[in-house]
Structure formats: C-alpha cells, structure tokens
C-alpha cells in the first residue's frame, strides 16, 4: 500500500517537473520576470512544505548570515538577472550537500533542486555578461552559509537554519525579479 | 478471611480515591489556567497576537509575551506592551518591524500553579500579513464602470505597500446583482492610487465591484466590501455637442487659412501665362503646318556688305578645315563646291542676318551668325536657288546618312538656331521636284531659339516629318564659318545641307 502511494506520488512529481521544465524551456527572455516570479512562489512553497515551523530547540544555532542588500540597489535589469542567477546557482550548490540528517520530505527537496537547476539554466540563456562586484558579495554570503553547515556538521538544526535563510533569499529574489522587468 | 478482605478493599478504595482526586486536580490546574490557542492577526503589517484564556477565570493569570527574530537575533526579547498583562492580546507591530525577517512569539502565562509557555509558529510579515482592503470608488459611465483604487496604509514607518513589494497585483470581481455573473479582472500596479475602467457591461444594470490586492509572494488579501453602482443608460447631451463644436471650429479655422493663403498669393486658382519657351515647343509638333503671316520685312536690305564679308571669311575657313579633317575631307570639298556655287550667286541674293544665341555647353557665349535667305526674293533669285537646291541635294544626301549613324554623340555638342521660315516639308521618298514652289514661309514666326531644345524634339516629332529646306547656299556656307561645327560634321550639318 505504501509503495503504491509512493509510486503515485513520484509519478505526480515527475509530471509536475515535466510541466515546469517545458514552461522554462519555451520561455522568452522578455517574459523572464513573469516566469521568475512564478518560480519564486513555487520554490518558497516547497521550502515551507519540506519542514515544519522552525523548531525551538534549534534557536541556539541561529546565525545572522547578512545578505548583501547592496545587491538590491542596482538599477539595471542585467544586474538583477546576474544576482538572481548567482543566488539560484549557489542555493543549488548548498542544497546538493549532505542532507542525511534532515527530516525533510525527500521528494520536495528533489523538486526544489530540479527547479533551481532549470531556472539557473534559463537565466543563463538570457545573461549577456557575468561577474562583477555584487556577485563577489553574494559569493561571500553563500560561503558563510557553507562554512556554517560544515562547522555544524550538517546537523538537523544547521539545516533548519539554512532552510530559513533560503526562504529569506527568495524574498530578495522577489525584489530582484521586479528589477528584472525594468 | 472475609473480614480480612473487607479492610483491604477499603484501603484500596481509599488509595484509588486519593489518586484520582490528585490526578483530577492536577489536570484541572494545567488545563484551566494555560492559554488555549495562539493566533496572529496581521493586516497591513499590523500584527496582533491573541490567545484564549483558560476555562477557570477565577484563577488570576498574568501574561508575558516574548519574541525572537530568527534571521538576526538570538535572544528572546520582551514585547514592551505585553509584560505582566491580563489582556488576551498583544500588539507586536512595533516589535516585528523588520518585515523581511521571520519571528517566533512566546507567550508565558503566570498563575499560582506555575508558568506555562506557548510558542507560535514562525511568522514572516512579508509573506503572511493580510493586504487590504483597498479603498474603492466607483463612477458610472455608459456600459462601463470607472474604478478608482487607493491602497491601504501600512503600519510601518514611512513605508507604503509599493515601497515594500514594489509591485502589486489587483483583482477585481464584478457581479451583477440580478444575473449573478462574475467578471474577474486582473492586473498589476506599482502606484499607490490608480484607476481603470471596466468595459463591456450592460446598460442600466446594477453591478457590484470588489477589489483585492495581492503581492507575488503574499497571496493573503482582504477584498474590499462590495460596492454597487448602476451603469448609465444613455449618453449625455454634452457628449454630442463638444465634437460638433470642435468640428465647426476646425473647419472655420481651415477656411480662414485657405482664404489667407489665396489672398497672399500662395494658391493660384487661375493658371498664369504659358512660358514662352514652352509655348514654342508646345506648338512645334502640333502647329508646324499652320501658316502664320510673316512679319519679317524691314531688315532686308541693310546688311549686304556684311554678308559679302562673311562669304569671304567662309571660304578661308573652309580651306583650313578641309586640310585639318581627314575623315570629312570629302564632305568639305563638297561643301566647298557648294560654297563656291553659292558664292557665285551671292551678290544677286538679298540676305537677312539673324543673330542667334547658342546655348550649348561648348560655345555658350559665342554668337553665331546665321545667314538666311529671304523668303520673298525676286524671281531671279528663286531660280538660282532652285539650281542650288538640286546640287546640294544630289551631293550631300548620302553623306549625311552616314554621319547620322556614326556620330550621334557629337550632336549634343552643337547648338543651332533655325529660322523655320525657310523650312519646307516634303516626303523623302519622292524625288525632289525642282519646280516645286517654295514654301512661302509665312508660317514661321516660330523661331527655334535654341537648338538644344530642337534636338530633343528632333527624334520624336521630326523623324516622321521629313523636312526639306529650301536650298540655301548662304546657310550652308555658314556652317563652314564656324570651325567647331565644321570639325564635327554630323547629322545636323548634313541635314542643313540637305535642306
């Protein structure tokens, strides 16, 4: 019975993934912000779904990673795109790490990662230039997160903290998405 | 045995009863005095945490609220207004000021029996606060409703919804009260106050409109209360008069403008006189045959001496040219013969000298004097000329044909004026009749001032009309007077000669 439901779930997730990927591949760069906006909502829902509310026992592990908010002050859409691309790429890197100790729904994490990968590819298509100062700041920020995970040995609480931070990242992504349109 | 069992049972009963009463009392204290449920009511970034008190209201309970910001601070902080309070709510608007952060609230309830903690799930104001309701104003128009929406104010310092979310989506629901039709209408805005028109509605119908505002990552919204309005049935009178008035005004201004232009001379309704040059060309191919009375009379006798001089000069030139040009040497000799023939009769003829401007590129300023015979000569003169005609025709007709084909480009270099008073028209197929009467040439007032113009027409109107000129030795001799022309002997020359 359990295997049946699991099979159905996997099939359903596969369908979702296919639908999502088809949408990503066929979109034009002019409609990128629309698609990015949808993706943000979808990813945030997945992140919320994977775990429950932040456990009180993990409050001790809370860390201020300090997202570089200067990244959000650039006015050019190209900069916003570059920043968004970097964030997605880095998040994919982080959530591909050791997740053994987490009690998250594995299917949800897989979907989240696949979404990240596809969206990164799509952003790459529309990018004209790469690099720059804001990207360096973002790299440093994500390095802090990686260091934190390593330091805490990928514990459950460390991952919960990172999941919370990832949710916060998507709030910034939402702002970057609005900037992409301009 | 029974006696023994009796007191044992009693003891058990007593223990049981004691146990149950303690249990009951324990359960009662824990259940009654602990708050039941924590709820966060957040609207436009005003966050109010509320809870339900325990059933036992007789037990005095004091509440203390703490909060923690998950992304920046580690410690629990006390909510200022919610320490040792008996109220069942706590305003955390000031505390949750970083709207991008996530918060966890902790409610501590103090009773006689101890402290009970209850924590809320993590709460992100950015994603979880309810937006709205917006302030909606409706204006009716025929078949449409004009909706003006003002976004609600936000309980944050110097911030508006647009500052926070940059862009908002608004959805409008239009319902007609009678038919229960719902028209959804979605769009996005980045302005605090905006208006739009919902069109294609039925006339004179009561519609109720409700607007809800959402953000891309925050779908929590409170729609505005239904506002109803009746769409207008007919257009106003003023709507019709304004276009009519404006149309009249525009036409009046246009009329004034046109009259002004006409008066100023910018518009010419009456066609002016036809330019002289164009008149000439215009009449050329149409009215060559129309004879006009010639007026050339008075100048005849004056220039006899000059002509003589020119004839002499002509002979000299002829000799020079014939020596220099090898190709056309034959022709020149022929001309020379003609010249001599002409020369012999020169004295007996009366000549009119005509001065003609040549406007060709090569000899623009050079005035060429062309001699032309008078049409109305004496009988003797005419007979002489007839003889000349015959000679010239016989001699030069073939050569002219050759030149015509070979040196077509040279035609452009020379410019001549012909007095058409001496032109005679004839069919080239017919043999030249010596006795034919000369064209009396009253026809030609038309004076070809410019040969260049003539050239253009030559190919079209004159190719069909073969014209022959009365053989005039003076005319042909003039050709040799001009060196440039004699060098480049061409069709025009030959034609002249043929004439």
UniProtKB/TrEMBL annotation, chain A:
Xref: InterPro entries: 4_helix_cytokine-like_core, Interferon_alpha/beta/delta
Subcellular location: Secreted
Secretion signal, residue range per the UniProt entry: 1-26
Short name of any one Pfam family annotated for the protein: Interferon
Coiled coil, from the record: none
UniProt keyword annotations, A-Z: Antiviral defense, Cytokine, Disulfide bond, Secreted, Signal
MF-aspect GO terms: cytokine activity; cytokine receptor binding
PROSITE patterns cross-referenced by the UniProt entry: INTERFERON_A_B_D
Any one GO biological process: defense response to virus
Cellular component, GO annotation: extracellular space
SMART domains to which the protein is assigned, alphabetical: IFabd
General function of this protein: Has antiviral activities.
Protein family: Belongs to the alpha/beta interferon family.
Listed name of the protein: Interferon kappa-like
Protein source organism: Pelodiscus sinensis
TrEMBL record, chain B:
One GO MF term attached to the UniProt entry: interleukin-22 receptor activity
Gene3D superfamilies: Immunoglobulins
TM regions (residue ranges): 242-262
UniProt-listed SUPFAM superfamilies: Fibronectin type III
InterPro entries linked: FN3_dom, FN3_sf, Ig-like_fold, Interferon/interleukin_rcp_dom, Type-II_Cytokine-TF_Rcpt
Keywords, ordered alphabetically: Membrane, Transmembrane, Transmembrane helix
Domain Interferon/interleukin receptor: residue ranges: 129-231
Cellular compartments per GO CC: plasma membrane
Keyword Acyltransferase: no
Keyword ATP-binding among record annotations: no
Stretches the record annotates as Disordered: 472-499
One Pfam family recorded for the sequence: Tissue_fac
Biased composition (Basic and acidic residues): 472-481
Start and end residues of each Fibronectin type-III domain: 14-113
Protein name, as recorded: Interferon alpha and beta receptor subunit 2
Species the sequence originates in: Pelodiscus sinensis (Chinese softshell turtle)
């Amino acid at each position: 019975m359990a295997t049946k439901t699991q099979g159905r779930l996997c099939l359903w997730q596969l369908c979702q993934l296919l639908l999502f990927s088809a949408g990503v591949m066929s979109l034009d760069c002019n409609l990128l912000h629309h698609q990015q906006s949808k993706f943000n909502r979808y990813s945030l829902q997945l992140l919320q779904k994977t775990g429950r509310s932040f456990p009180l026992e993990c409050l001790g592990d809370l860390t201020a990673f300090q997202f570089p908010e200067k990244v959000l002050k650039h006015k050019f859409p190209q900069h916003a795109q570059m920043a968004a691309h970097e964030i997605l790429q880095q998040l994919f890197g982080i959530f591909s790490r050791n997740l053994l100790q987490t009690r998250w729904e594995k299917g949800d994490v897989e979907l989240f990662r696949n979404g990240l990968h596809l969206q990164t590819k799509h952003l790459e298509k529309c990018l004209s230039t790469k690099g720059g100062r804001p990207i360096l700041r973002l790299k440093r920020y994500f390095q802090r997160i990686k260091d934190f995970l390593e330091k805490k040995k990928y514990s459950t609480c460390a991952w919960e903290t990172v999941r919370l931070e990832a949710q916060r990242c998507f709030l910034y992504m939402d702002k970057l998405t609005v900037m992409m349109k301009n | 045995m029974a006696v023994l069992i009796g007191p044992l049972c009693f003891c058990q009963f007593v223990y049981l009863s004691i146990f149950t009463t303690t249990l009951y009392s324990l359960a009662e204290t824990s259940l009654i005095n602990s708050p039941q449920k924590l709820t966060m009511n957040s609207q436009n970034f005003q966050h109010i945490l509320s809870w339900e008190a325990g059933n036992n209201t007789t037990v005095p309970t004091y509440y203390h609220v703490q909060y923690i910001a998950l992304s920046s601070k580690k410690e629990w902080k006390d909510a200022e207004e919610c320490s040792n309070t008996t109220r069942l709510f706590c305003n955390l608007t000031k505390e949750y000021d970083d709207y991008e952060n996530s918060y966890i609230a902790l409610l501590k309830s103090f009773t006689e029996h101890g402290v009970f903690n209850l924590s809320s799930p993590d709460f992100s104001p950015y994603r979880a606060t309810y937006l709205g309701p917006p302030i909606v104003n409706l204006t009716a128009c025929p078949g449409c409703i004009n909706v003006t929406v003002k976004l609600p104010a936000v309980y944050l310092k110097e911030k508006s919804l647009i500052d926070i979310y940059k862009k908002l989506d608004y959805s409008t629901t239009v319902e007609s009260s009678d038919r229960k039709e719902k028209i959804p209408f979605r769009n996005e805005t980045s302005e605090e106050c905006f208006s739009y028109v919902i069109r294609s509605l039925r006339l004179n119908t009561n519609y109720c409109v409700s607007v809800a505002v959402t953000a891309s990552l925050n779908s929590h919204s409170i729609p505005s209360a239904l506002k109803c309005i009746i769409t207008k049935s007919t257009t106003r009178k003023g709507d019709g008069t304004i276009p009519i008035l404006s149309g009249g005004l525009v036409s009046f201004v246009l009329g004034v403008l046109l009259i002004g232009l006409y008066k100023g001379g910018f518009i010419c309704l009456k066609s002016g006189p036809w330019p002289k040059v164009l008149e000439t060309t215009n009449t050329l191919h149409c009215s060559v045959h129309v004879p006009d009375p010639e007026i050339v009379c008075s100048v005849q006798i004056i220039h006899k001496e000059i002509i003589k001089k020119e004839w002499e000069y002509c002979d000299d030139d002829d000799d020079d040219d014939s020596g220099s040009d090898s190709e056309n040497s034959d022709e020149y000799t022929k001309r020379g013969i003609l010249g001599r023939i002409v020369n012999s009769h020169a004295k007996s003829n009366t000549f009119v000298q005509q001065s003609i401007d040549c406007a060709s590129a090569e000899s623009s300023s050079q005035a060429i004097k062309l001699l032309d015979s008078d049409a109305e000569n004496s009988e003797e003169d005419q007979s002489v000329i007839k003889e000349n005609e015959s000679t010239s025709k016989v001699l030069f007709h073939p050569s002219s044909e050759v030149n015509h084909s070979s040196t077509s480009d040279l035609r452009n270099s020379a410019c001549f004026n012909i007095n058409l008073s001496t032109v005679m028209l004839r069919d080239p197929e017919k043999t030249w009749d010596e006795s034919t009467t000369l064209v009396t040439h009253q026809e030609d007032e038309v004076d070809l001032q410019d040969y260049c113009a003539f050239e253009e027409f030559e190919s079209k109107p004159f190719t069909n009309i073969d014209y022959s000129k009365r053989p005039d030795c003076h005319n042909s001799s003039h050709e040799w007077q001009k060196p440039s022309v004699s060098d480049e002997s061409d069709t025009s020359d030959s034609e002249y000669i043929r004439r």
